Amino acid sequence: MSVGRIIKGPDCVAEGARHLARIEPRFATAYALTGPLPLRLRKDGFAALLDAIVSQQVSVASADAIWGRLKAAGLTGPRKIARASDEDLRACGLSRQKMRYARELAAANIRYPALRDKPTDEVIETLIAVPGIGRWTAEIYAMFSLGRADVFAPGDLALQEAARILFELEKRPTEKALRVQSEDWAPWRGVAARLLWAYYRVAKEREGIR
Question: Where are the beta strands (DSSP E) in 15-172?
Answer without folding.
Answer: none
